[in-house]
Amino acid sequence: MAKRAFFIAYSLSIFGTGLVYPLTAIFLRESIQLSASEVGFYFAVLAISGLVVNPLAGMWCDRQGPYRVAATAVVGQAIGPVLLGLSNSPSAVTAAALFTGVGSGIFFAVQTPLVANLFGKEAIGEVYARQYVIMNIATAFAGFLSGWSVGQWGDTAFRIAFLGNGLSFLLYGIIVLGFVGSRLKYPLLVASEGDARRKSKSRPWHPYVDRKFIPLLLMQLIISAFGFAQMDGVLPVIIREVGGMPVIVVSVFLTCNCLAVVVMQSKVTKISKRIGDVASMRLVFAIWCSSFVIGSLSMVLTLPLAARVILIIFFAIVFAVGECFLSPSFNPLIAATSPTDSLGSYSAAASMMYGFGLALGPAVMLPVFKNSVLYWGGLLAAMVIGLALLKTRSEPKQSTDQAGVTSGSVQ
C-alpha cells in the first residue's frame, strides 16, 4: 500500500509540473512582461535558493531519514507556484522563485534515500526507470493540455496551471507523510568495506572534494545547464521569438520529446546495459550534439513554417534518444562512486549541481539566444567538454549495492 501510494503521489506531482513545464518562461515574458535578463534572474533565484538549503537537506536526511524532509519540502513547492500564478510584478515573481527554489532544493536532495528506504537499494534502478516513464507520460499530457488551454484562454490559463502545480505538490506531501512516511522507519545504511571515504562521519562538503566524484559533478552541471535547462527555460522562448511560432508549437515540441522517451526507453535501456554506462554517456553527448545541429537549422534556414516545425519535432525526438541513454547510465555512475553511508549527502550534491545548472543555463544562454552562433555554438562546446570528462573514465564494477541512481539527473 505504501509503495502504491508513493507512485500515486509522484504521478500527481509530475502532472502538476507538466502543466507549467513548457510555459514558465513564456508566462514571465508575455503575461508579466519581464525582459530576457529578468527571466534569467528568475531561474537563477529559483536554483540558487535551492543550492543554499541543499547540503543541509542531505545532512538532515542522513540523520533523520527522508520522509519528514520530503514532506517539509513540498510546503515551499506548493506555495511558490501559487504565488507565481498570482504575481503581477517582478518582486512577487522573485518571492515565488524563493519559495519554489527552497522547496525543490530540499525535495530533490532526498529522493534517492526516499526510494532506497521504501523499495530497497537493489530496486532503485527499476523504480527510477518507472518514474521516468511516468514523468514523460504525465509531462506530455499535461504540457499539451496547458499549451492548448493557453491558446484558448491566454493569461487566465497560465495562472490556473500554476495554481494546479502548487496543489499537486500539496497532495504529494499529504500522501507521503500521511500514508508512506508515518508507517515506516528509516534504516541506517551500512557502509561497505574497502573504501577509505567511509571511515569518517559524513559531512555535506565531502562530495565536492572527492576526486572520484568531481568529474561526475561537472558532467551533471553540463547535462543540467546545457541540456535540460535549455529545454525548460530557453528553447520555448527561442521557438516563440526567434522562430515566430505559436505557443502550441512549444507544447508540441515538448510533447513529442516526452512521447519519444516513453516509446524508446525500454529498447535503449537494453542497449545501454549491453554497451556499458561510460559508452552510453559518450553516446548521450554525441547525440545531443546532433540534436542541437538540427535545432539550429530549424531557426537559421529560410523555410516554410511547416518544414521548420518538422525540423523542431525531429530535434525533440533526437534529443529524446540521448535522454534514453542518459537515464540508465549516468545515475548508476553516480551511485557507484558514492559512499553508501553518505548516500544522502552525495545525492544532495548531485542534486545541488543539477540545480546550479538550471540557474546557469538560462542565465548564460538567454542573453545570447538571438545570436545563433553564440547560442548553438555554446551548446555544442559544452557537449564536447562532457565527452572530454569521460575520456579517462572506465566502466565501474557493478554490484547490487551500486544499482542506485540520484535524483538530480532526471528533472
TrEMBL record:
<dbReference type="GO" id="GO:0022857">
    <property type="term" value="F:transmembrane transporter activity"/>
</dbReference>
<feature type="domain" description="Major facilitator superfamily (MFS) profile">
    <location>
        <begin position="1"/>
        <end position="395"/>
    </location>
</feature>
<feature type="transmembrane region" description="Helical">
    <location>
        <begin position="283"/>
        <end position="303"/>
    </location>
</feature>
<keyword id="KW-1003">Cell membrane</keyword>
<protein>
    <submittedName>
        <fullName>MFS transporter</fullName>
    </submittedName>
</protein>
<dbReference type="GO" id="GO:0005886">
    <property type="term" value="C:plasma membrane"/>
</dbReference>
<dbReference type="InterPro" id="IPR011701">
    <property type="entry name" value="MFS"/>
</dbReference>
<keyword id="KW-0812">Transmembrane</keyword>
<feature type="transmembrane region" description="Helical">
    <location>
        <begin position="157"/>
        <end position="180"/>
    </location>
</feature>
<feature type="transmembrane region" description="Helical">
    <location>
        <begin position="346"/>
        <end position="367"/>
    </location>
</feature>
<feature type="transmembrane region" description="Helical">
    <location>
        <begin position="7"/>
        <end position="27"/>
    </location>
</feature>
<keyword id="KW-1133">Transmembrane helix</keyword>
<feature type="transmembrane region" description="Helical">
    <location>
        <begin position="373"/>
        <end position="390"/>
    </location>
</feature>
<feature type="transmembrane region" description="Helical">
    <location>
        <begin position="309"/>
        <end position="334"/>
    </location>
</feature>
<dbReference type="InterPro" id="IPR020846">
    <property type="entry name" value="MFS_dom"/>
</dbReference>
<feature type="transmembrane region" description="Helical">
    <location>
        <begin position="69"/>
        <end position="86"/>
    </location>
</feature>
<feature type="transmembrane region" description="Helical">
    <location>
        <begin position="213"/>
        <end position="231"/>
    </location>
</feature>
<dbReference type="Pfam" id="PF07690">
    <property type="entry name" value="MFS_1"/>
</dbReference>
<dbReference type="InterPro" id="IPR050171">
    <property type="entry name" value="MFS_Transporters"/>
</dbReference>
<feature type="transmembrane region" description="Helical">
    <location>
        <begin position="243"/>
        <end position="263"/>
    </location>
</feature>
<keyword id="KW-0472">Membrane</keyword>
<feature type="transmembrane region" description="Helical">
    <location>
        <begin position="92"/>
        <end position="120"/>
    </location>
</feature>
<feature type="transmembrane region" description="Helical">
    <location>
        <begin position="39"/>
        <end position="57"/>
    </location>
</feature>
<keyword id="KW-0813">Transport</keyword>
<feature type="transmembrane region" description="Helical">
    <location>
        <begin position="132"/>
        <end position="151"/>
    </location>
</feature>
<dbReference type="InterPro" id="IPR036259">
    <property type="entry name" value="MFS_trans_sf"/>
</dbReference>
